[in-house]
Amino acid sequence: MAKVLVINGPNLNLLGKREPEIYGHETLADIEHSLVAQGKSAGHEVLCFQSNAEHELIDRIHAAMDEGVAHIIINAGAYTHTSIALRDALVASGIPFTEVHISDVHAREAFRHHSYLSDVASNVIVGKGVKGYAMALEAVINNLTT
Ligand code: DQA
Question: pLDDT digit string (tens) for 106-132?
């Protein structure tokens, strides 16, 4: 059994209410429940964390180092485009991670085109809607079992 940590950054607590034409109608709680179930059915533990505060996201990544987390799935929200500190924390942790974005960031405003995470991520899933989280977890599970 492996541990997979799912981290969501700023404003993703508003999923379901926030710009549903872009981010859909599912809430973060719905998404987290189904990821936990998906992990469990494959024999793995999925831990979930959301924060709007950059330092809390960094602290959670640091804590994951002592918890034996095998993989992080992260939607860092707008910090994707701004936070060298978050990138540094992920690299420092040595934990492989998948970057997820619900929307197609490359088809949106120019300031969303650059990610501080993509070049150090082991996988990037963009523009698949909230299904992107399940796709990310499925790929992680397949890798863990091969
Ligand atoms: C997002 C895309 C980001 O540009 C934005 O700031 C978000 C959500 C996405 O999931 O599509 O908060 O990461």
Answer: 999 999 999 999 999 999 999 999 999
Q: What is the value of pTM for the model shown?
A: 0.97
**Binding site membership of 115 for ligand 1 (Cβ less than 6 Å):** no
Ligand 1 centroid vs 1 CA: distance in angstroms? 30
Q: Is residue 122 lining ligand 1, measured as CB closer than 6 Å?
A: no
SS3 call for 113: coil
- For position 145, what pLDDT does the model report? 77
Torsion of CA 96, 102, 107, 108, to 10 degrees: -110
Q: Where are the alpha helices (DSSP H) in the chain?
A: 20-23, 28-41, 54-65, 84-93, 131-145
Looking at residues 55-76, what average pLDDT do you find?
98
Indicate the length of the chain as a whole number: 146
